[in-house]
Design goal:
The complex is a heterotrimer of chains A (266), B (292) and C (302).
Chain A lengths: L1 E12 L2 E12 L3 E6 L5 H9 L6 E6 L2 E2 L5 H10 L2 E4 L3 H4 L6 H11 L4 H14 L16 H13 L5 E5 L7 H18 L4 E6 L2 H7 L2 E6 L2 E7 H6 L4 H9 L18
Parallel strand pairs in A: 3-8, 3-9, 6-7, 7-8
Antiparallel strand pairs in A: 1-2, 1-4, 4-5, 9-10
Chain B lengths: L10 H24 L31 H33 L5 H16 L2 H12 L3 H28 L2 H8 L4 H38 L10 H10 L9 H34 L13
Helix pairs in contact in B: 1-2, 1-9, 2-5, 2-7, 3-5, 4-5, 5-7, 6-7, 7-8, 7-9, 8-9
Chain C lengths: L2 H4 L11 E4 L2 E4 L14 E9 L5 E10 L4 E5 L6 H9 L7 E9 L2 E2 L5 H7 L4 E4 L13 H12 L4 H14 L5 H6 L7 H12 L6 E5 L7 H18 L2 E6 L2 H7 L2 E6 L2 E7 H6 L4 H13 L2 H4 L1
Parallel strand pairs in C: 5-10, 5-11, 8-9, 9-10
Antiparallel strand pairs in C: 1-2, 3-4, 3-6, 6-7, 11-12
Helix pairs in contact in C: 4-5, 4-7
The chains are: A alpha/beta (266), B mainly alpha (292), C alpha/beta (302).
């Protein structure tokens, strides 16, 4: 069942066409990684799916419903329904520093006037799903590590029981240890929620994307140049840009076939 | 390595300022009750006397006890300063915060109105106000309040703007929160400390303004004592009693000074909190060109 | 001490025996083949750096770079790798000082060198580029003018020739449309281009070694690959020595024949890159390798 479908989506900023005719589909239970470098339009893609930016042409269908023309109160209603949720790159900025973690996580439920008892249950479930220690709930964001904060941000997105989770550079602002924790949390989440949740992960880092995603979509200058299973895209890239991208990633194992030798004399 | 924020003047300053301001507040409430002698009673045999066992601070040109007049005049001056500051806060702060959320045109208009009010010379405005609406303390207070309001508008707006563009506000919006939700949940928390500091400063300015107006005779209803009024009349008898103006002058200076000290101390405290919050943020890493 | 001593570095030749000493851990001295005939351009020997409040930040680190070689320095932030490089340039942050060991340039003692002494080697013997290129340039002036200024000051190129020389330098780095780039300001150029300009500025006076401290970290991976290729070419064509500092072991593995692994202000492992990757001695190095195995692309490419 198609959860998200982009049909010929185009977004212009003034006279610049940032996204050009994107077509992409994602089913419930899938994790799709969108890899793009600077200027590829990946952030705009996230914004288009979240409706924080107006698209110029094409459609964004969530559960079959075109959300591109939603406005005002209708848009807020759609947001409160929690079909699509978003996780920002930097949890230090995306969490209110003066609000306790428990309250931040529950925010979406309070906005939607969910009764306190049910809210409590959902918060506990989400916190468990991301592997966050319940002892951390009464703390302020400054009392948590980077990885814990990001997991709290993911929990905040999860409590409204979204069908689609959009993550924009979820691990880029974190150090290596935190990155690992968050990736593991997302993989566990995927296993736990399985068919109910779809994830769209956007990043410049192919390595962490490949660890989490079933499919890889390569974005270059506002266009999708490759879309396929992770293993295929990395091992047998078709498009010249994808090939260049894969070959640019530094490797340690020099015995790999079809890789240019490292630049060092060894 | 982050540098620690500038050390505050110490929490003893806050305590000292609170004690001083507390004393003044007490006087504002209980002043007249504490007056040893009826402030209106004229001791015609003892005009313009220096301090004595009966009149601790001496007498004025009508033989009235200065200390009693000071204490009796406290509420008038202090409470009207408080009223003016409150008027300013209410009229200025909420519109200021809301102005960050209204569309461009409305925003522009609001800012121009505020600019116009800020440009008005305050004493002139007060005089015109009094001429139009009557020469009473209420009118004078309202005039001062209206002229303080733009300051609150600006402070409130600036603080709100900083928060409006924060990512956690965007996050709340994505969760379906309306502008009111964002205001109450996120903006208020960040703006309140700044408003507290602004209010304390405004109190000091308002008191000075009330004293100036009553000095000029606006808003004063003789023979009721006000500090500014006492100062004015004492200056008229400098030759006979040079130390006369000292009492009301010092009362004004003491109070305004205490309020400013309190405002500074609270500002330091608030500053330290925000500095710590800023230090907790990792340094921004600049990525390639503009993020699209 | 003569140069020959320096040339038998303590940390690079393999993780043999470890001996604890008052200044920290020292690794056994062992001979590094071919090292006898090439004196180090820049080196630190058992360097100890201390902060203003007395905390020791770097505990006895030894590092040497010889002409034409590429030395990699791997470590997380806080490991002391950047401070050590700054010591090699005489630009330690205020409050941090050398409290042990020595710093040498061309065999000359530079541990307590004056600013004037450092100026004589900065740019002319040792050049450097760092992480955020935009913050090292004036945003209001075209980059060409800043490059020309560096040429005049550091390389003592006369004013009339500076512009032409700037053009040549950028051309050498493989930049097309050089004249256009020279006219641009910081905001109009990409990170990769800015870093190339900074590399040009660092190499303006033909130093023997270039220190690149996380120079590619904030850049896209394709741009990083281009810059690493550029650095390799500069090594081949000019015999430029390189100290490449990164938190990414794979980046260092691409370019450097020798690598030092830093952790908490110490060198925990060092030696030939192929040996360190194949048979890591220290648990920390092993953890870096397994982290790479989890997030690198190798597992898809086998």
């Amino acid at each position: 069942m198609t959860l998200l479908e982009l049909k010929d989506l185009s977004v212009d900023y003034g006279r610049v066409r940032v996204l050009a005719g994107l077509s992409l589909s994602l089913r419930a239970g899938q994790v799709v990684g969108v890899v793009g470098e600077s200027g590829s339009g990946k952030t705009t893609l996230a914004k288009a799916v979240l409706r924080t930016v107006e698209s110029t042409a094409g459609q964004v269908l969530v559960d079959g419903r075109d959300i591109t023309r939603l406005r005002g109160a209708a848009l807020r209603r759609w947001r409160r329904s929690g079909a699509v949720q978003y996780v920002f790159q930097d949890p230090l900025r995306s969490l209110d520093p003066g609000v306790r973690i428990a309250d931040s996580i529950a925010e979406g439920l309070r906005i939607a006037h969910v009764p306190a008892a049910i809210a409590r249950e959902r918060v506990d479930a989400a916190v468990q799903a991301v592997g966050l220690d319940a002892d951390l709930l009464p703390r302020l964001p400054s009392g948590l590590s980077g990885g814990q904060r990001q997991r709290a941000a993911i929990a905040r997105a999860l409590v409204v029981e979204p069908r689609l989770l959009v993550l924009d550079e979820p691990v880029s602002a974190l150090d290596a240890a935190s990155r690992d924790k968050v990736v593991q949390a997302l993989i566990a989440l995927r296993r736990g929620r399985g068919e109910q949740l779809g994830m769209l992960v956007i990043s410049h880092d192919i390595g962490s994307l490949a660890a989490m995603s079933d499919r890889l979509v390569v974005l270059h200058r506002g266009r999708i140049v490759e879309d396929g299973l992770t293993q295929q895209v990395v091992a047998k890239p078709q498009h010249p840009y994808t090939r260049r991208l894969i070959q640019s990633v530094p490797v340690i194992d020099i015995r790999l076939p079809n890789r240019p030798a490292p630049l060092a004399r060894s | 390595m982050t540098r620690s924020p500038r050390p505050s003047r110490g929490s003893w300053t806050v305590r000292l300022a609170l004690v001083l301001v507390g004393t003044v507040a007490l006087l504002a409430i209980a002043g007249p009750a504490l007056a040893p002698i009826d402030p209106l009673a004229q001791d015609t045999g003892n005009l313009l006397q220096g301090s004595s066992s009966e009149h601790w601070l001496g007498t004025d040109y009508l033989g009235r006890d200065v200390l009693s007049r000071l204490l009796a005049g406290a509420p008038a001056s202090l409470l009207s300063a408080l009223a003016a500051a409150l008027i300013g806060l209410v009229v200025g702060a909420l519109p200021g915060a809301l102005s960050a959320f209204i569309p461009r045109v409305g925003e522009w208009l609001a800012l121009r109105v505020v600019d116009a009010l800020l440009a008005l010379p305050f004493i002139l405005f007060a005089i015109v106000f009094a001429a139009l609406l009557g020469n009473g303390l209420v009118q004078a207070t309202t005039a001062i309040g209206l002229l303080i309001a733009p300051g609150f508008f600006r402070v409130s707006r600036a603080a709100t703007l900083r928060v409006r563009d924060a990512q956690y506000v965007e996050a709340a919006t994505l969760l379906g929160g309306s502008a009111w939700w964002v205001l109450g949940r996120h903006v208020w928390r960040q703006v309140a400390p700044t408003l507290v500091v602004a209010s304390i400063s405004a109190l000091g300015s308002a008191l000075l303004a009330v004293a100036s107006l009553t000095f000029l005779g606006i808003g004063v209803q003789p023979p009721a004592p006000t500090w500014g009024g006492m100062l004015a009349s004492d200056l008229g008898y400098l030759a006979q009693r040079p130390e006369g103006p000292l009492a009301p002058a010092l009362a004004i200076i003491f109070t305004v000074g205490a309020l400013n000290l309190l405002a500074d101390a609270v500002r330091d405290r608030v500053g330290m909190v925000t500095a710590h919050a800023r230090a907790a943020r990792p340094p921004a890493t600049r990525k390639e060109s503009v993020h699209v | 001490m003569s140069d020959i001593d320096l040339v038998t570095p303590t940390a690079e030749s393999g993780f043999a025996d470890v001996t604890a000493s008052p200044t920290g851990v020292t690794l056994n001295r062992s001979f590094d083949e071919g090292s006898v005939v090439r004196p180090a351009i820049a080196a630190v020997d058992r360097l100890v750096l201390t902060a203003a409040d007395g905390t020791e930040l770097v505990h006895g680190v030894s590092l040497a770079v010889r002409p034409g070689e590429a030395l990699g320095v791997v470590g997380e932030s806080g490991s002391g790798k950047t401070l050590t490089c700054r010591a090699l340039l005489g630009i330690l942050p205020s409050g941090v000082s050398v409290t042990g060991g020595s710093v040498r340039v061309d065999g000359r003692e530079f541990t307590t060198a004056s600013e004037r002494d450092w100026r004589s080697v900065r740019g002319t013997r040792i050049g450097a580029v760092f992480q955020d290129p935009a913050s090292y340039l004036n945003p209001a002036i075209p980059v060409g003018a800043q490059l020309a200024e560096t040429l005049r000051v550091t390389a003592e190129v006369p004013r009339t020739k500076a512009k032409q020389r700037a053009r040549e330098l950028l051309d050498d780095l493989g930049i097309r449309r050089v004249d256009l780039v020279l006219r641009q300001r910081v905001a109009e150029l990409s990170g990769g281009m800015l870093q190339r300009v900074l590399i040009a500025m660092a190499l303006a006076a033909n130093p023997a070694v270039l220190i690149a401290d996380e120079a590619t970290t904030a850049l896209d991976v394709t741009v990083q690959a281009e810059l690493l290729e550029l650095l390799a070419r500069l090594r081949r064509e000019r015999g430029l020595a390189l100290i490449l500092v990164s938190h990414d072991l794979a980046v260092v593995a691409q370019v450097c024949e020798r690598v030092l692994v830093f952790r908490d202000g110490r060198v925990v492992e060092g030696g030939a890159t192929s040996r360190v990757l194949r048979a890591p001695g220290h648990p920390y190095t092993r953890s870096l390798l397994s982290a790479h195995a989890a997030y690198g692309l190798e597992r898809f490419l086998r």
